[in-house]
Design a protein that fits this description.
Number of helices: 32
Largest sheet: none
CATH superfamily of one domain: Tetratricopeptide repeat domain
Mean pLDDT: 89
CATH topology of one domain: Serine Threonine Protein Phosphatase 5, Tetratricopeptide repeat
Low-confidence stretches: 11-22
Distance between the termini: 99 Å
Radius of gyration: 35 Å
Shape: extended
Length: about 600
Amino acid sequence: MRKAIALILCGLGLLLVPLRVVAQQDAEQLAVQYFNSGDYEQAAELYGSLLKRTSNKYHYQMLYRTYFALEKYRDAERLAERRIAQNTKDLYLYVDLGRAQLARGDKKKAERSYDKAISLLKNDLRPVPDLAMAFEQAGRPDLALKTYLTARANTKSKTLYFSEIAGTYARMGEYDNMTQEYFNFLDNSPGSLNSVQVALQRVLQESTSPQLAEGLKRALVARVQAEPNNRVYLEMMIWFSLQQRDFRFALTQAQAIDARFPDLGGEQVFRVANIAYTNDDYDVAADAYRSLIQKGKESNYYFKSRVGLLEVEYQRVNNGYAISQPDLVRLEKLYDDAFEELGKNEQTVPLMRHYADLMAYHANRPQPAADMLYDILDLPRLQANVRDEVKLELADLLLFAGEVWEASLLYMQVEKANKNDILGAQAKFRNAKLSYYNHDFGWAKSQLDVLRASTSKLIANDAMELSLQISDNMEDDSTYGMLELFADADLLLYRNLLDSAWVAFDDIAHRTLSHPLLDDVLMKKATIRIKQERYADADSLLSQLLEFYPDDLLADDAAMQLAELNEHKLNNIERAIYFYEKLILDYSSSLYVDQARKRYNALKTR
């Protein structure tokens, strides 16, 4: 009988367990509601009750916060004291105690509580992160730093918590100490160079203080001068110079490494050359490539530097404007010399592609350009993606030469082979534009509308502009007469028949005083004048577009072209700055904003 009664009571107890759990959850939710609504008295009562039943850390923290909200600092102090007695290893509780003591005006007692927490640190590192974080949250990064340094001293480790210590120095603005902390770590762990660079890059990006970069540079220069044969710091100096976009100084340091460590064979110089080239610093890139070429053909980087130098020379003049005849002759000679020395092979494909572009679109000699592209396609080990890129370039060239059907076939081949990537989207866009040239506007628009969802912003933007151009004129001109004239003129422009294209666009402008195509006509006429090196005329046309059609899709294009035209060709820096700023402020969603901001900052700091 007694056994049966015991079993019944046990069963009833088990049934009550979930009820208690539900009651606790309800109390927690109610406490949160009270706290969030500012009813701190009710919240304190509930959290106090919950803490007595569970001794839960969360309930303790919320009760502590509630006492602070009620300005009951003595209650918060007593709560922290009781918690310390129950959890002697949780040293962060002394920070809670000190904060309560400070809040009620006893600064000396608070400092003693903080010191007590740090003094209790021994070889056990488990309390360190929570204690340091508590000091940070209390607005005492100096004591967080002391926590890490005490743990380091206790364990006799020179690099323990180096990242946390360096980060704390950075937040305190003690950049010299931060730098020395990183240097200390590198001295003891030179293999961690990449980790240090990543950490410093984050600090440089997050800091708005110019003192950080200046201090880091001073420290690096001093360390390199003191240890001129220490590769780690030479590489750090190169890395820092690249972060600051000081490519000339980076090259100087790379050449210093090259001189001291000839076994590297110019590796750092080649790296700086490539980065400078990518960032459009062609002077530094060219100097770097030349210094490697001067080492002779036995150098590991001779071949790549020959290619790189010619790439620089090509990009230096191929900036969207007409290439002068002397530059054209000089470049063609450089390419001929390069092919004679290096051959036509997989490694020189970039040179072959640029040579074709130069011959077709600048020298107006499409046949040698096509021959060069066919030579590339005949290479046996050509990568599939490169082959398709070259096919696109060949299709463009065939269209340029008037071979419309052959161009369309190649576009379709590339699209079919690359259905789900950007290359396929490019082929689809170009084929759609070919249909537009052929007056097949309905088909062209259907393809362009698909491309408006492209993952490539540039393709999607171009597709949207052409699609809207077609749809605007399909609505306003049921016969498509003006649109057909415009497409014909556009094709003449693409084929570089500039005089004929100008006459055609001018004819459209004179046919009507108001038409959706007139802003596009202004843009195309400006493009013609740029190709003809009549830059002042182009400036006038683009200014008209921006003045009369400030809300048009082409407005940001016009602003960017005006800025670049005045910077690079008209040498009117103030006007260039004005248009860069206008683009940033008035067309903040434009794809050109980042580029405009970069050029604006560069020109303003001259």
